[in-house]
Amino acid sequence: MAQVIANSGHDDMIHDAVLDYYGRRLATCSTDKTIKIFEIEGESQRLIETLKGHEGAVWCVSWAHPKYGNILASAGYDGKVFIWREQSNQWQRIFDFALHKASVNMVSWSPHESGCLLACASSDGFVSVLEFKDNNFSNVIFPAHGLGANAVSWAPATTPGSIVSSNPPAPGTLGQRRFVTGGCDNVLKLWTYDPATQNYKQEREPLTGHTGWVRDVAWSPTVLQKSYIASASQDKTVRIWTSDNATQGQWSCKVLSFDATAWRVSWSLSGNVLAVSTSDNKISLWKENLRGEWECVKTIDE
Amino acid sequence: MVRLREISRTAAFAWSPASAKPLIVTGTRAGAVDADFSDETKLELWDLDLDNQDQGLELQPIASLPADSRFYDIAWGQPSEDYPKGIIAGALENGSLDLWDAEKLISGDSDALISRTTKHTGAIKSLQFNPLRSQILATAGTKGELFIYDVNDPSSAFRLGTAAARSDDLECVAWNTKVSHILATGGSGGFVTVWDLKTKKASLTLNNNRKPVSSIAWDPNNSTKLLTATPDDITPVILLWDLRNSNAPERTLQGHEQGVLSVSWCQQDGDILISSGKDNKTLIWNPQTGERYGEFPEVTNWTFLTRFHPYNPNLSATAAFDGKITIQTLQNTNPSAVQNTTQSHLDGEDFFTQAQTQPQGAAFSLAKAPRWLETPVGVSFGFGGKIVMFKQNPSQAGQKRSSKIQISQFSVDSDITSATEKFEESLKSGDLATICESHKEEAQSEEEKADWLVIETLLSDNPRKGIVDYLGFSEKDITNGTTTDEDDKKEEDKPKKLAPNVKAHKKRISTFFADGPDADEEDFLASLSATKGAKTDNPFQLFSESDSAVEKQITKALMLGNFEKATEICLDEGRMADAFIIANCGGKDLVDRVQSAYLSQKTGMPSYLRLLGSVIVKNLWDVVYNADLADWKETMVTLCTFADPAEFPDLCEALGDRIYESGDRKDASFCYLVGSKLEKVVDIWITELAEAEKAGLAESSDSTFSVHARALQHFIEKVTVFRHVAKFQDNEADLTSGWKLALLYDKYVEYADIVAAHGQLDVAQKYLNLLPTKYPAADMARARVQLATKKAPAQPTSRQPVQHTGAPARVASRAQPSAVGGYQPLQSTPANPSNPYGPPAPQVPTTNPYAPPASTTPVPPVSNPYAPTGANPYAPQGYQTPLTQPQQMAPPPSGYGAPPPPSFGPPRSSTPSSRPPPPRNADVGNWNDPANWQVPAAANTMLQNQRLGFNVANFIKAAGLADPIAAIYFNVTG
After folding, report:
1. Which of B77, B115, B519, B572 could disulfide-pair with B129, CB 3.0 to 4.6 Å?
2. B872 and A69: CB-CB below 8 Å?
3. Is the pTM of this model over 0.80?
4. What is the pLDDT of residues A125-149, one digit of tens each?
């Protein structure tokens, strides 16, 4: 059943591989400083493009929502964020962002309802948010994790609980701009856009508990009663932070333990299954069980 | 290379082993003179405070303790139960080993000293905690003295080697990183000794080319390799040894101009080494290859100690005899901006003092990305239940590294998958009854159960009868009841010979129910008439003696055949029964007149008469609107019995509305169901859905998603079955707004999302197809499923050769300048809404929306399936600027294009010519070269600066001749 791309064409390690909105195209990036785009056709795949331009390892690629075009963002060790667009079957770099002073470790597009926003987390300790709007570009950049920011993930555009009731959500609740970041200071921080200052404000005290770098964060796309944030850490744990609608601002935490550094966490599209990758090359899938505890439902081993 | 912080001390230092908040402990260095010539000896603690943007470069100690003697070395051990912040160990000039409790030191406690152990007869030069067994400590010092301690009982320390064996001073000690009982020492005698704690003997000696050794570092990954630093100014080298061949070093690192004093081998990446020495330089190497990555800014005196942060290798610190410890990060890509930041802290007089000691030398970035940033393995989800994984392939040293990608179908939530599959299966086989049955059994609430019962009932061959049955009016009861009523009534008027007719009537009613909506009310009325007609069997005299004048008149009229007149007279006289009889002969109109006269004249009549009235005038609305709701079941039965099939749904709806207003949702939904009023019942069900979910959450403590998905699944099944049963046709599919079923459509979209996420794209598609074509959320969702489920596109034969050569198919369209030049013009109308990413059907085969148009067809501008819609922020209005006007696209002459004014430039004015133009393909990589970076000169602060950081020159290059969009960005950001 599994489709394997054994020879990606990359000359070195791959650091990210993500499917586009339709699941038809796969973007990968590597220490070899390139990005590759594959067309997935059933059980086969075809390399359609190699994007060059980064001058260091490329860490992260992220597809924008197709509403904004066929757009890919990339970030790398050269401290740069590039935005690539395909038009008429040609890929072109349409934008460079080079304000970060060190490796940009992750980029993430906001939910499309919130606008065309790209959040970037950098080893220089800063987080930036680029906004593309009305043929214009703007950015805010602010200190987030003094020891280095490793990861960023947006909250869903709608507040949890709002679709459970049959009432339409209040106008103000749509398209919220909120995200979580994780860094080398072992903490997670939550940020919300403040229209008054046009900057992002830290929501509350950092979420603490990890005893190693937070390598990845993932905010579940679910918009049911609760908000879920997963964080992967070098302390060989994944923490799942939960906030009830009723207890806004209060986050409780469950800890999943592993045998090796947890590198990546990713939620399924419905937000109910969490995938964790650890440096012992294991992938595991986790689900909340009947008692509200997380259990491993599947392990994909070598 | 960013200089993050400075500590103004000439001191030995050690990093806190903690992973978060970086701290440094310092002890006044032995053999050095402080800048202020003070002879104070202190143990001090420093917090880097990197989160604090207001913290200047220079730190102040957060804790300080006087010490008895100066330090040659200092170490900070791992936290333990007794010492949660670890133990700080000082190698003192007076030969004693002092241990402090780090926690007490941090909290400012003055009794932080744990113990003082004096085993050495001379100064201790070096000490190190065992990295694998953190309570074990080794100290090395003058006269070859080497002691091993357990920090829990330092007095029980033992000595390795004997006084006679080696009288040279030991300068350094280092534990093996992999084997806990192995350590190495080096010293002025030019020998490196590898000791085995198990035998308590020297197991190996390296002659180090007979040069003294100032520092030793073990390979972080390979237990047989170590590095030695040579402090000798004549051969200032670092040697890499493999103990398996101890005769000669494996590699020699040459680069320092004078003696090397300290080396620190990165534990997280064996390809990075820092060394420092008497040439005032701190160099960064790849010790495996000997390649030199670069160097930290040079200082003004010997750099005697350099150390990586044990946990966060981004950070390292170097101590020099110029009175400073410099803390720096390995990561930096933007030196000019950094220098600006640095200088912003300077003012006035301070500037000159600072400028004088400003380190010289180039900043640099590592050409190679450090390993601790390299994600080796990852996972992410894709649309349609896909899961993408990548992991590093196992590789031997020296081999090219590679990774493998795997895409698999993901099916974890078997609940949803199996539920969907089961349901779709049942639907296909048409076995709706089974579905209803199982749902009835599983139903969580009475309402739920009732819904399914009704649906099941509707499923039967004779729905109305079923409804009547369901309401508890079995055929038998009704007929009996009716019979009794009718009998009573008729007995009164016509006592004789009624039985057969009544039977006939009864039969009619039965037929009615049996026939359902097809039954003809005329028949019923006819039978009533027949009943009355039966009276003719009863003989009577036309004019009897007793007849009154009126009666005679009637008789006369009758005889004349003037039934109308006769009836009128009867009515005037109040002889209702007579009027009926006569009217009966005069035809239906007349009967109707009498009936209505009778019914309207009667006040306080029995309800059956009112009901009868409604039935007769075919106005069941009266019943629906006015009947007591307590009797709604009876009302429903009446509707089932009499209502015109065309009117039946609306009548049911009206009844349902009334019931709903009165607050009974269950009964209301019953009425809606019977009336096949999908939109009404859906409203109720959606409310129930929310409640069921809430209940589910409260009861089961199941995961939110599971409860939600299950509730939604039930809801969808109910609606779907009901649609089947009611043969519901959505008449609003072509509307563009104001759908009655909008709420249902939302649920369909959500459901489709969930099942699609579980890989059941065909099911998702099925439900999305139920949405109106113009429904806003439908486009995107449908297009997504369609694109995702597309089979491999059939390649047009004309492009086959291109494919065979392995070249991407896009070549075909590249050959067409028109497509390139005129891509994406403004459109006055939005793209085909049913598939915004799809090309217009005529131009491109719809089977392959990604494919470029066949090369024989002129490329229409909108043919790119990925072309964004009008809302695309990347497609600004102004980009239509003709390509023949390049000057419009050129960047503004000044501002971003201009190099920073000298005063803001990096302080390397002493070597302005040393920087060659950036060789873009150089391996070493000059991509951080300031010449390539166009940072506005005034940009001193990072905070909230709406600055433009992209590289104009590169940008133009990358964008080809002149990208119109680029022009836009240049313009708007000015």
Report:
1. B77
2. yes
3. no
4. 999 999 998 878 899 999 999 899 9
